[in-house]
Amino acid sequence: MxxxxxxxxxxQTIERLRRRALSQRGTMRSxxxxxxxxxxxxxxxxxxxxxxxxxxxxxxVAVGFGDVRPLKVAPGSSGVxxxxxxxxxxxxxxxxxxxxx
Length: 101
What we know:
It is a single chain. The protein is mainly alpha-helical. The chain has one domain (11-57, 77-100). The chain has helices spanning 11-25, 31-55, 79-87, 95-100. The longest helix is centred in the middle third of the chain and has 25 residues, at 31-55.
């Protein structure tokens, strides 16, 4: 059950929310849903950080996502190449492609 709430935001924040709602959902009517998801996500991150902090033996250690570094993955085959390789084994292969193989 949803409850109606009034939220006061500055112009810059509301503009960012509008752009995000439009890019992800394609409509301005989704602002409420966008705010709900952001708040829910924030709560989940807080709960996760609290659980990680509880799990450690040293309570003075702060756990945060700022310490996480992204993995560096070597580039692989392009999407087009992967699709062509998969299609070669099926009936979807174009006649021109079958002749080359």
